[in-house]
Amino acid sequence: MRSHYSGEITPGLDGKSVTISGWVHEIRDMGKLKFVILRDRGGFIQITAKKGVTPDEVLSAIDDLSKESVIRVEGSVIRNDKAPKGVEIKPEKLEVISKAASPLPLDVTQKVDADLDTRLNNRFMDIRKPDISSIFRLRGEILSAGRKFLKENNFIEIHTPKIIASASEGGTELFPISYFDREAFLAQSPQLYKQMMMATGLDRVYEITTYFRAEEHDTRRHLNEATAIDMEMAFIKDDGDVMDVLENLVLALIKKASSCENELDILKKKINVPERIERIEYDDVLKLLREHGKKLPWGEDLDTESEKLLGKIMLKEFGSELYFIVHFPLAIKPFYTMPFKGEKYSRSFDLGYKGVEIASGGQRIHDLELLSKRIKHFNLNPDNFEFYLKAFRYGMPPHGGFGLGIDRVMMQILDLSIREVVLFPRDRHRLTP
Ligand code: ATP
Ligand code: MG
Questions:
Q1: E strands within 294-407?
Q2: For the structural domain made of 6-98, what CATH number should be given?
């Protein structure tokens, strides 16, 4: 339905016949001159109609146009220094393909600001705005870069079930669903299944997946449906091998984002690409926090305030926007986490980016006896885990992995809230659209 996108129409095409299709962004009627700004995926182009030159049926079609209608225009390219980008279209035919009703639920030209709720309620129209659509173009680029990196590093893309029989990590934060005559749940992560893959010989797997978590959060970084790159690898020496992969993956994602110049220009953002990622011990994090007035008792996980403060300290004192916190207390990590230095610490890590956790991971227990002991220690019912434990009974190599939140990566790269970087966010209050 088109010969060119608007972005492809340059003064160099002067005199050439073209067909363009898109949405009516603006209409300006100056009496003898009528301007229509057409918007498509490539940007904007001005259509200039003149009384006495443009066919009458085109002129009257323009008079009847409503903003945001979908139109198709045939005409010729005219070089004109006064037009935006030095070029405009002289229309010969204008067809209204789909007429937009008015008033519009949202102002796509952004002359009137809308609050986030109104924007999300009319998301299809919100994404017509070039800056908002840039967020999702960038997101697509990052995901492709992630897939490319993982493929180049010998990872196999898999899919694990999202309907599960029991809690994967023992938490209570699951959405129950009715599964014929039984109760089932939506998966909070692929954890147990990706670990079982380590007993198959596939060795390196990943999944770009949805997490469902029934937590009653009301923050700018939590949703009840979140997306992550979840990976697991076997035959590792320890958690360091897993961190090496995560470090290179995250740097590849940020580097990719920084190369999306067109999107970043539209969004008016600049991205800093770090060369490496700092690694600090959990104990040293507590020390740093204490030196800055925040007393976090040993054995506790970082709360929102501590995460934020640590982000500031890391930037100021180490020049790092990205940092691993390593060797968390064993007690605050899930049952499958490998102990370290007796039972006090664990071979686990979190990855922070500008004061927000974007990933968690570590080495897992591969010894069946120890694993069963840890399940009992957490007062979980071993019967619920029989399908999983079976995979540890007949040859299981040492392994580890991580879950990297894509929504979190996006929000931190662009300094936005999580709801802005997800197409149709799901939170406690929002279930539609
Ligand atoms: P947090 O402590 O920030 O609530 P978590 O430790 O519960 O996160 P993990 O189970 O470690 O989350 O999940 C791995 C990653 O998935 C997180 O580091 C984060 O990037 C992402 N993630 C987890 N839960 C959510 C959520 N509710 N909304 C958005 N992203 C999430
Ligand atoms: Mg975590």
A1: 322-326, 339-340, 345-346, 348-353, 356-363, 399-405
A2: 2.40.50.140
